[in-house]
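Posting this for the archive.
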Amino acid sequence: MLRICVQKNQGQFGLDVDINAPAGVTAIFGRSGSGKTTLVNAIAGLSRPDTGKIVVGETVLFDSAARVNLPPPLRRVGYVFQDARLFPHMSVRRNLTYGGDHDAAHVIDILGLEPLLDRRPAGLSGGERQRVALGRALMCDPQILLMDEPLAALDASRKAEILPYFERLRDETRVPIIYVSHDVSEVARLATTLVVLDEGKVAISGPVGQVLSSPDVVPLLGTRTAGAVIVTRVAGRLLDDDLTELQFSGGRLLMPGQLGEMGQLLRIRIPAQDVILAREAPTGMSALNVLPVTITEIRPGRGPGVAVGLRAGDDQLLARVTRRSAGRMELAVGQQIYAIIKATAVGPEDIGG
């Protein structure tokens, strides 16, 4: 458990947050200048808050009232930056063990580093370098791991290469992780908890699925990136059509490609702008996914759009339609309607373990 309650003024910008981060991956999301890096630097001890308290488990890292401010070396914080910052003259093995060799065999296994141990950083891809940087941070036996935009410098193919390793790390390590990102797809795949910052303050926080499916989050994430996250189970294959059947509490989804293994749990992010609403069950459509849903919330935006919260079984979805469409359909909270989702609306970057 991580408790952060700090305030810090930097000229015209002020950070004022109160966060309880449970076990797992807590993603800190926000636009540029919202205070993400200022926050993680305060946790690491690289920046001193004006007032407040930071506690990891039973360890007090900072407490202005008690005049406690542990120096960075005593905080046992692993920090992974945008660039790997490896020592170019050292092998991967020596880079990994530079700060310690805690649980080395397990770390090497989780991150798939065995084939890289005798190579040097210059011969690694961007994704491989970040895996080594992450391994080095873990071998220091941290009580918390901070990751500040660790994939921001990678292209889409390198991100696809490294994300499964991050997912495995999330599932197999007990080290709490603070993951800073401005990429919603990354957050949806990796996070268990999501904190959205806006102008130095917590705008909304909670379990990632709950936050991303809330209409309140649309203006904070942007209309093109807002979308709900659901957990599904691989239930079947339509080999002739190259489709995978996914089951969740709200019904069945068909997605392109052969995804996962039978019975495997997969997270799916469904963009709000790709959810079409209908008052009656549609016929004669090319879309393969039609789900009965109940409207839970309707939130007009600042522009011509309306965010519509939907309940599908025990899960929450999110749709974005125009004001004109919402008025013409006479949408209302409690109304039972249908959500139509194209199979191709969910990209590979929106599907994870």
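The two ends are 24 Å apart (CA to CA). The longest helix spans residues 156-172.
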